């Protein structure tokens, strides 16, 4: 099967508009061809530097511009990060994602960041970092340290982006993605559903991902976690219909699978507010990975017990970190 980077918006719209069962069937068929359909990876997220961020992303609890009551903190100590990663591995995670509330990393922080990557990787965990915009030199240093994935989301369609953030442009995001793509690090890039966007925006968002020079190896799809006193969280209080319904959410992940057959599709923030049935449909369609643990970065998450019970009911298995080490 050929991997296409020339999808048109019309073709993606046509997929979205298929009868739901046909769409799911096509997504499942492609999913089974490229992935193990009964396996879902568990990832743990850690906020290594919380709050006080210079960007004004309208959904985010961590922007210094939004008075969300979140306490800002400095970059964590490397040892404390390694301890958290060790615990995540013991709890069954295969992947450890470290997030910092930065517009971009300061060069003075890079030694600590590099050391986090090396030491977490040495535990046999897959590593991912999300630190904001990168220079060529910073991307090079992360690559040299052996970072597996860099997460940098486009969040929405290009035309909706100015409703989401005004302290940077879509092109700024694309530039960092290009720097990551040109290094040996895999790209993790996705977005958020339920920010008041239309289906046309969701189509434009998927189109932007699927027409990058290479598909991102990893595509996190977040459901907005509405946060009080953020512009988008407050907007939704007054327009509850902006919340994406579960069938539309499943259509979005299924379409993502059809147009990006090889990507790891990650059901990310917002699972706490989703029913088990909707999550099951996401796994059925294509989802390869979830974030487990008490919180993604600063908000709530479905509990590990609840996830384990759901996996049990669905017969989903988790590849163990130990297996990854021995396979390495
Ligand atoms: N500062 C870095 C950046 O923006 O690239 C990394 C951290 S940022 C929290 C990572 C991603 O989390 C964002 O790009 C966004 O897609 C997602 N996110 C943040 N807050 C969210 C929320 N309230 N609901 C859903 N997703 C959210
Ligand atoms: C992504 O797309 N989702 C994760 C990860 N990349 C870094 C972050 C979700 C954050 C959810 C809001 C919070 O907990 O602050
Ligand atoms: Fe900062 Fe990232 Fe939050 Fe935007 S999403 S405000 S860049 S931490």
Properties at a glance:
328 residues, alpha/beta, TIM Barrel, 9-stranded parallel β-sheet, 12 helices, globular, disordered C terminus, binds S-adenosylmethionine, binds 6-(5-methyl-2-OXO-imidazolidin-4-yl)-hexanoic acid, binds iron/sulfur cluster
Q: What value does the average pLDDT take?
A: 92
Q: So, the CATH homologous superfamily?
A: Aldolase class I
Task: Output the helix-strand order.
Answer: HHEHEHEHEHEEHEHHEHEHH
- What is the CA-based Rg, rounded? 19 Å
Helix count?
12
Strand order of the largest sheet: 5-4-3-2-1-9-8-7-6
Q: And the CATH topology? A: TIM Barrel
Given this structure, which CATH class is correct?
Alpha Beta
Distance between the termini: 28 Å
What gross morphology would you assign? globular
For the record, the CATH architecture stands as Alpha-Beta Barrel
Strand content: 5-15%
Can you characterise this structure?
By secondary structure, this protein is of the alpha/beta class. Helices cover 40% and strands 13% of the residues. Helix 5 links the parallel strand 3 and strand 4 (149-151). Helix 3 (78-90) packs parallel to helix 4. The longest helix has 15 residues, at 20-34. The two termini are 28 Å apart. The model is unreliable at 321-328 (pLDDT under 50). S-adenosylmethionine is lined by residues 59-60, 99, 101-102, 130, 132, 152-153, 155, 191-192, 222, 224-225, 227, 269-270, 297, 299. S-adenosylmethionine (SAM) is lined by residues 59-60, 99, 101-102, 130, 132, 152-153, 155, 191-192, 222, 224-225, 227, 269-270, 297, 299.
């Amino acid at each position: 099967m050929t991997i296409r980077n020339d999808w048109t918006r019309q073709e993606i719209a046509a997929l979205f508009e298929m009868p739901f069962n046909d769409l799911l069937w096509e997504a499942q068929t492609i999913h089974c061809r490229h992935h193990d359909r009964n396996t879902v990876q568990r990832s743990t997220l850690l906020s290594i530097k919380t709050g006080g961020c210079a960007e004004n992303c309208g959904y985010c609890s961590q922007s210094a511009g939004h008075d969300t009551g979140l306490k800002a903190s400095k970059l964590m100590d490397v040892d404390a990060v390694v301890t958290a990663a060790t615990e995540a591995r013991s709890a069954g995670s295969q992947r450890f994602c470290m997030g910092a509330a930065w517009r971009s990393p300061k060069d003075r922080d890079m030694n600590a960041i590099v050391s986090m990557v090396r030491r977490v990787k040495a535990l046999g965990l897959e590593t991912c970092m999300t630190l904001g915009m990168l220079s060529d030199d910073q991307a090079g240093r992360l690559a040299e340290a052996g970072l597996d994935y860099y997460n940098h989301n486009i969040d929405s369609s290009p035309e909706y982006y100015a409703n989401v953030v005004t302290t940077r442009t879509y092109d700024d995001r694309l530039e960092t993605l290009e720097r990551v793509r040109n290094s040996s690090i895999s790209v993790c890039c996705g977005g958020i559903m339920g920010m008041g966007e239309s289906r046309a925006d969701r189509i434009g968002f998927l189109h932007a991902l699927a027409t990058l020079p290479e598909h991102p190896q990893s595509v996190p799809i977040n459901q907005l976690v509405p946060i009080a006193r953020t512009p988008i969280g407050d907007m939704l209080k007054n327009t509850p219909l902006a919340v994406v319904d579960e069938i539309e959410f499943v259509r979005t992940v299924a379409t993502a699978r059809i147009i990006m057959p090889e990507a790891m599709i990650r059901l990310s923030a917002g699972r706490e507010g989703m029913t088990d049935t909707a999550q099951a449909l996401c796994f059925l369609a294509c989802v390869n990975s979830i974030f487990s643990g008490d919180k993604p970065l600063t908000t709530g998450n479905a509990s590990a017990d609840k996830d384990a019970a759901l996996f049990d009911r669905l017969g989903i298995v988790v590849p163990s970190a130990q297996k990854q080490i021995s396979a390495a």
